[in-house]
């Protein structure tokens, strides 16, 4: 299993392991009147209206099934028809907003084919206050009012991640909240009960609401938005320079990685945008856009117009067309056909035709504009086509200028036909017709192919133009699916004050804190300590003063009222030695799995300190992976085995630190 949570922090409370820790309220200003914020506001408003209409429809359908009065049934049926009409209008309005690709494009004046970005999933506000306060009182036995600031910080962080800025800071904000969910799960979500918080999220494309109490739904939705934000960042890059193309490639590859991670780790998602077919479509779309960027970079970096360079451009364009055909096939699957916006499907079809046309244009340019031939040119041309055309061999064609002209003319004919098909599909979509940049690109390349065809056409050319063979697609850079790296943004557990996560977590069960007063005798306090954060009572001396109240395996959480959950071994020893004759009060807790813990400690006592500690940290991360994704976690397919059973958290910390046992 992959580690989906950050490693446990072992430092003092309030100390972040990353000095660049993001301030929770660094999201975009939701009131800022930018084009993107206006679009998000309209999306949020439509989502709320769709939610309202769906509740009305559910109520009307229940009434229709429950009543036996024909008059009431007629009235309800009429109301249902109105509600369904309203829902259809709202969904069409939302589809038009989701199809608005120009808002996310670059402001550069360079003419490039627009990319397809994805809008963020919207969510309602969540109030963690009462559920977390109740859990702290009930489970941890502490005063919940002491954690009001921590709860406020958590809610501010979630509020900020609803409107992330479209840059690296916005991505880090989403990742910070995503990583913070690991600690939230460990602190407040036991295995067999929920916290009572309901998470509401809207489908990214349809606006249909979904709600669940599991934290996995929240985590999956945040990760979806990470991928969506990467698509917006990729679409806004200025692709007129190589540096901008490289940034776009990186963004689209990371978007594909985020969507692919969701696809591999979730199944039976509550919303269609996170279903396996939808995520598969999004991964393929991102890969296709990476391939398109690779072609654009090749056109920029190919300074020469040699024969082999033009052939390479033709094969690269053919590769782009092929991957968009795969995307188009995914979009026409039964579940996706009525889900994907029509403008997306149209854009993908336009691009597949457009790049196929470019492929034939560059093939014609190679054949007709370059007469120099060498061994390398012949070798490249022999592997240029999928199937060898009938008639003269490719070597003969390369030697004869007239045969080269005719084959080039055939390629240009195919190019013009594909350009015209792209323009026809473009004209059928209202959203695409509004995109001036796309229209300019299609018109420019179409005119270029027509002009080239006119140059090769002769008045005495009465022979029927042959059919150009299919070009073998080839790329010099295959797209990579870059998985999300959760360790790039280090966070500190907001509720670190509760104590080390190894002991003070939602999975652990212990008795109430009890205070024991001890007075030093001639033999000392009569107890043996081991470990730190928190310090453990490793043994109680028979007949000693500690025997009356302490048990082996108790954790010391305070000494004379001073919190010691994060205290090191030496610090607790110092407090005990400084008590003098007046005695000392120890606050301790006892885990219910005391006997199991003691046996685990006996087995692990001889292990190396650092190796054991690392094993514990790895176990904590592994636990996060399973517990956060168990909502729809896919089983591993190797050997047919299911999800690996987790080790007990109680058995780990007792023997995880091999400190020398000292009697006090």
UniProtKB/TrEMBL annotation:
Give every PDZ domain span: 515-581
Q: Mention one GO biological process in which this protein takes part, according to its record.
A: signal transduction
Entry's Gene3D superfamilies? Answer: 2.30.42.10, alix/aip1 like domains (1.25.40.280), HR1 repeat (1.10.287.160)
Q: Which CDD domains match?
A: HR1_Rhophilin-1, PDZ_rhophilin-like
- Which InterPro entries does this one have? BRO1_dom, BRO1_sf, HR1_rho-bd, HR1_rpt_sf, PDZ, PDZ_sf, RHPN1_2
Q: Which residues form the REM-1 domain?
A: 29-103
Q: Which SUPFAM superfamilies match?
A: HR1 repeat, PDZ domain-like
Coiled coil region boundaries: 80-107
* Chain ranges passing through the membrane: none
Pfam families with a match to the protein in the record:
BRO1 (PF03097), HR1 (PF02185), PDZ (PF00595)
Region (Disordered) residue ranges read 1-23, 620-644
The BRO1 domain is annotated at 114-501
Alphabetical UniProt keywords: Coiled coil
**Source organism, top-level taxon:** Eukaryota
PROSITE patterns xref list: BRO1, PDZ, REM_1
Q: Which family does it belong to?
A: Belongs to the RHPN family.
Recorded protein name is Rhophilin Rho GTPase binding protein 1
- Organism of origin is Takifugu rubripes (Japanese pufferfish)
């Amino acid at each position: 299993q992959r580690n989906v949570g950050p490693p446990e922090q072992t430092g003092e409370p309030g100390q972040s392991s990353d000095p660049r820790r993001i301030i929770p309220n660094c999201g975009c200003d939701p009131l800022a009147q930018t084009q993107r914020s206006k679009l998000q506001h309209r999306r949020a408003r439509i989502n709320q209206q769709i939610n309202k209409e769906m509740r009305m429809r559910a109520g009307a359908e229940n009434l229709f099934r429950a009543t036996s009065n024909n008059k009431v049934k007629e009235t309800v049926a009429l109301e249902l028809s109105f509600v369904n009409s309203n829902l259809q209008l709202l969904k069409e309005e939302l589809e038009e907003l989701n199809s608005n690709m120009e808002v996310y494009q670059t402001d550069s004046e360079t003419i490039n084919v627009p990319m397809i970005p994805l809008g963020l999933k919207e969510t309602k506000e969540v109030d963690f206050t009462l559920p977390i306060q109740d859990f702290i009182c009930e489970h941890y036995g502490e005063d919940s009012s002491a954690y009001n600031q921590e709860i406020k910080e958590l809610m501010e962080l979630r509020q900020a991640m609803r409107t992330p800025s479209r840059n690296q800071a916005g991505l880090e904000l989403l990742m910070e909240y995503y990583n913070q969910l690991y600690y939230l799960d460990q602190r407040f979500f036991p295995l067999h009960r929920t916290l009572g918080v309901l998470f509401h999220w809207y489908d990214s494309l349809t606006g249909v609401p979904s709600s669940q109490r599991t934290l996995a739904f929240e985590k999956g939705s945040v990760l979806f938005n990470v991928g969506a934000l990467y698509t917006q960042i990729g679409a806004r890059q200025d692709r007129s320079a190589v540096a901008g193309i490289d940034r776009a490639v990186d963004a689209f590859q990371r978007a594909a990685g985020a969507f692919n991670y969701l696809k591999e780790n979730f199944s039976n998602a509550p919303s269609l945008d996170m279903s396996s077919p939808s995520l598969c479509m999004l991964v393929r779309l991102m890969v296709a856009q990476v391939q398109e960027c690779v072609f654009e970079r090749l056109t920029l970096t190919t300074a020469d117009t040699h024969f082999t360079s033009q052939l390479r451009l033709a094969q690269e364009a053919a590769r782009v067309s092929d991957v968009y055909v795969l995307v188009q096939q995914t979009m026409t699957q039964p579940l996706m056909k009525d889900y994907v916006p029509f403008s997306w499907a149209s854009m993908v079809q336009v691009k597949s035709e457009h790049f196929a046309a470019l492929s034939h244009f560059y093939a014609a340019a190679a054949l007709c504009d370059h007469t120099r031939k060498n061994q390398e040119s012949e070798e490249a041309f022999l592997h240029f086509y999928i199937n060898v055309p009938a008639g003269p061999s490719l070597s003969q064609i390369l030697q004869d200028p007239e045969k080269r002209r005719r084959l080039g003319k055939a390629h240009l004919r195919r190019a013009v036909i594909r350009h015209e098909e792209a323009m026809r599909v473009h004209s059928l979509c209202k959203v695409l017709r509004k995109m001036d940049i796309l229209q300019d690109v299609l018109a420019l390349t179409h005119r270029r192919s027509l002009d080239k065809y006119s140059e090769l056409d002769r008045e005495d050319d009465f022979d029927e133009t042959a059919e150009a063979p299919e070009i073998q697609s080839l790329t010099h850079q295959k797209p990579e699916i870059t998985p999300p790296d959760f360790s790039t943004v280090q966070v500190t557990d907001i509720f670190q004050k509760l104590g080390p996560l190894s002991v003070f977590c939602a999975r652990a069960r212990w008795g109430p804190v009890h205070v024991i007063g001890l007075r030093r005798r001639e033999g000392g306090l009569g107890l043996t300590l081991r470990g730190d954060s928190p310090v453990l009572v490793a043994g109680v001396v028979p007949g000693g003063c500690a025997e009356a109240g302490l048990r082996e395996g108790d954790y010391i959480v305070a000494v004379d009222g001073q919190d010691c959950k994060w205290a090191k071994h030496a610090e607790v020893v110092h407090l005990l030695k400084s008590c003098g004759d007046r005695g000392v009060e120890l606050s301790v807790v006892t885990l219910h799995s005391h006997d199991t813990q003691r046996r685990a400690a006996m087995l692990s006592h001889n292990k190396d300190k650092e190796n054991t500690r690392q094993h514990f940290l790895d176990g904590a991360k592994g636990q996060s992976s399973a517990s956060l994704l168990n909502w729809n976690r896919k089983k591993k397919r190797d050997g047919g085995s299911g999800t690996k059973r987790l080790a007990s958290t109680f058995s780990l910390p007792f023997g995880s630190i091999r400190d020398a046992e000292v009697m006090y």
